[in-house]
Structure formats: C-alpha cells, structure tokens
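ok so for the tutorial part 2 we go from a plain amino acid sequence to predicted structure tokens. step 1 is just haveing the sequence, like this:
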Amino acid sequence: MRRAFFLAILTGCGGGGGTDPDHAGPADVREFFPVFAYVTAGGWEDHLIGARAFGIPGEQYPDFVCADLAAHGFNAVWLNNIDYALLPRWLDAAGRHGLKVIAQGMPISAYWDGSGWPWPAGWETIVDDEVKPFYRREVPRFRGDPRLLAYVIQEENPPQPAIFTKMREVMDLCAAGDPTHPAIAEYNDVDSVRMAVERTRPEALVFGVGPFPSPYPGDDEARYFFPWITEQSHQIGRAGGVPLWMILQGGDFDVYYDGTFVRRAAERPTRAQLRWQVWFSLLYGAKGIGYFLYTWQHPIEAAGWHEDLHGLRTRTGQTTEIYEECASIHRSIAPIRSLLLRLDAETRLDDQDYHWTIRGPGVRSRTFVYRDTRERYLMLVNYDFVLAHPAIAPAGLSSARFEDVRTGRRFSAGDPGSPVLQAGDGTLLRILSP
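step 2 — the prediction. this is what the tokens look like for a chain of 434 residues:
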C-alpha cells in the first residue's frame, strides 16, 4: 500500500465477542471501532531511519510512535511490512498505550504482491513453499494476545479466482495456528472487493480512498466519485454482513526521476477536507477509520524513479496541521464510536441519487437504525470544504425533534439554536419524534 490512492478491502476469518470498542478481546473486529494510522515499520534499518527523524534511539521507536498516536486519539496502528522478529516490541508498546496492532508481514508483499504489476511466474509455488511456512511458524506465537487485532497477508490483488483460492488457503492456515485473530488482505479494485466477499468469507472490509490527486479534478468530482465508490463497497459488505473500515488520504506525495522532481502526484488535504473524509465515511456506514500514512522514512527506488511521500508527520518528524486535526476529529467521534458499531443505514443511495444530489457543496444526510432497539438516528455532513452550513433536517423530518448524541442538547428542526456544521464537519442526532 505504498501509494496514497487506492481502493482497499480487508477480508479474513476470526472470532467475535466483547462489546467495548476500546477494550475488545482478541479478534473482536466486529466489536471494535479501529482508528488507526498506516506506519512503515519494516525491519531494524527502517526503525533506525524512522527513529533518527525524531532524534531517538531505534529501540525507542515503537514506544514513541504508539505514544504519539495515542496522544492524537488513535486506538490502533497498522504496521506495514513489519519484521515479525520486531512484532513483540510493537505489541509491548501498543499495550502500554492502549492501542491494538494490525500486522502486515514482510513476505507476502515481496513475493506475490499484485500492486498493478505482473505477478512473477510460479507465484503459486512461492506461496506454498515460502509464504505458508512463514505463517505456519509465526502465528501460533501470538495466539490469544489481546494487543493484536489482525494479520495482513496481502495487498492490492487483481480480481483473479486463482489468487483468492490461494489466499483462502493461507487464511485457513493462519486460523488453524491462531483462531483468535483474523488473517486479512487488502485490495484496490471494486471487482476484487466483490470477489473477496464471495470467495474468502470475510470478517472485515477496508476500503481506501484518495480524493485529492494532482492535478486535482475539482471539489465536485471529489464529492461525487469517492462517496459513490464508497457506497458500492458499503453495499457489498452489507450484503455479506461484513463491517466496513475506511482508509483515508492523510498526506501528499511527489514523483522524482534520478533526483529530479517530475510531478506532484497527490495534494495534501486541508483540515476541512480531512474532516469531510471522516464524516462522509461514517455517512456511508464505516465502522473504522484509518489514514495513509503516518510518516515515510525513505523514498522508493525503482530504475531511477522514486516517490517522496509526506504523511501526518513529515520525513523530519514535524507535525502537520492535518495531524493535529486528527486529534480534534477523534475527540469529537470518541463518544459515538460504540453507537456507530450498532447503526445500520436505513436508506440506500443509488446511482441516480449520487448523480443529482452529491455534486456541489451543501449538507448531506442519511437516517440510521440502532439494531438493538430500532431507534432512529440522523447523520448530517457538510460537503462544503470552505463554508459552514446549518444542519437542516431533510424532507420528512422537517418537524421532528432531535437530541444531539454528543452533547445531549434537544431541539426542533428549524430552531434558531440548531447546530451549525463547520466546513467538512458532521453530526449525529437521535430522532425523538417523527
């Protein structure tokens, strides 16, 4: 997942149980609302490079990152290409700071990563001879560890049945060695999303978006296209009874050739655009939020080309406006995370709705039903990236009374004291009367 723009899905098999989204037991992926950042963990040399940016010894890097994420309201960390010899250090650090670990192991990406490139000849043999033995050896060591949320075995697969057959084999192998944590995989294609749900019996879906490429097509295109493809993923997951996690754009990156700048490939989102990504994800049924990426230690070299990525923190360890905005957003949604896990969208937004209503700024809304009590809720999201808008109830609820879930304040639609949504912001209201 080295590119900032992708469509992703996590699928896997695992257990359930627990109800507290911040203290769920092993494999409680359906009972835990993850708020995570994608961290390029790698091996020991990567740790040294990452630690150098913060002026700390390599041994302190896991603890520093986990403490930093916890201070910004995260409750999980995604470790990209982690050397499993270092995974216990990260689990210890995560446990000290109340985080769960999503561990993406090194072998898979190196051996049978699609990533839009041709797969190597004989990849099936590589999976059988190298990937399977790795997980057969490693996963039993972490059985029952409450600090671990999931294993990530693969990313960015094309929608080819043979691939999903092998992935299912690896997932089953992991489940045999550690039935307490799901083995999951990430994709960047909606057809792969559909095939994964149908063929791999998923425990969780994660769908990633990058709404702000460069050249930027414009606010209307971002407001239209990315919610549209998110809804497709939401409906695929909902049909299979699978929760949706979202990975959002948390940075920008440039492309170089032989040390010379070639082009800007992604624009850094503004604070309002970051808020909007979180809230439109919740509007489309997300049960978890992640960001690509925390920081990037070094450029990717490939025949003279490399990508220079800038995440929530810069390469030199400096914080950014959007990282501080993350902390504010996470404080805002923390009181409703448990509730969000139990809310089911009451209405489907079809293609015609998208075509005629998503374009342009303004407030979008959707009603949800709490599955345990059948209480109804209204979510409102400001799709304007610049201006604030009043939280106006949609037709059919124009005379209803509401309760702000986060503040407890009650009001009627149209009251002068009705909430005002800042640019990109959202809110969740309990519907007290029709």
